User: Fold this.
Amino acid sequence: MNTSFAEAAGDDGAAIPPPPAAKPLGTTFLTLVRREFWEHRALWIAPAAISALMVVGVLIASAKYKAPNHPAMTDEGPGGMTMFAVMQGSVSMPLVLVMSIVLVFYLLDCLYAERRDRSILFWKSLPVSDGLTVLAKLAVATIIVPLGVFVLGLVLSLVFAGIWELNAALGRLPAIPGWDMGGWLNAELALLACFFVGMLWYAPCAAYLLAVSAWARRSPFLWLLLPPVAAQILEKVAFDTHYVGSFLLYRLAGIWPILFAHMHLGRGRSFALSSALNQLNLGAALGNVDLWLGLVVAAGLVFAAIRIRRYRDDS
Assistant:
């Protein structure tokens, strides 16, 4: 029998279909990202629920509000553009807070849960590498969800501005002073820049949580807290210093004083939305050596999480 014919036919002579073509890497990655939102619905339900509550709360408050005689707000007055600028930034604060809490629990659980419920056996049976799986989870936490929250905050700011203008038309509130679309876009670009810097700054924190999730056999939250707490106690006992605690505080919030070093909001100076982006100290923030060292550490921790997922066996 011809060799090529034997390879193309089964025992009963029927032709064996060729193996399915491998899916493009981008399609596989997108499927893995969708998996995260299927399995961890809080990633999108929590921000959406908070947004809906905020809109409902503002609508109820505006319906019950009885306006006294307000003086018109001006750009120079204390209730002018500065107040509206604060309102623009405040819209995203509840969303960012909820997002941060959800992402901490997501990162701690995403690799641990698949070993706990043994779903990892199914996913490992598929032609998907451990590296691509871990990178998809990291991308969800550090890029996709933050950008989604930014877009949601952008939409909310427009909704709230519309509610404000509706109340202004009804005489409940003064009109938004100096409103212009260019200034609003500038403010949103400034907020996007803050999100971008935050994603870079907190990348090692996200990678550390991923490594803990891959490592912990049980109680990943305990493994999250145990090393830094133990290190601080040992440092205090052995050296009577607090460098570890200072480093942790710096890693959690140290980039923001650098980024906002040129901001004059709340210091008696006028603040215009159109200058929001220019007042961010982006050069110093992106030129901070600790930001880039953190990214190097994040790469090492992600590599560790990939290796641990590949060889960890809790059976």
Remarks:
- Residues 1-11, 72-80, 266-270 have pLDDT under 50 and may be disordered.
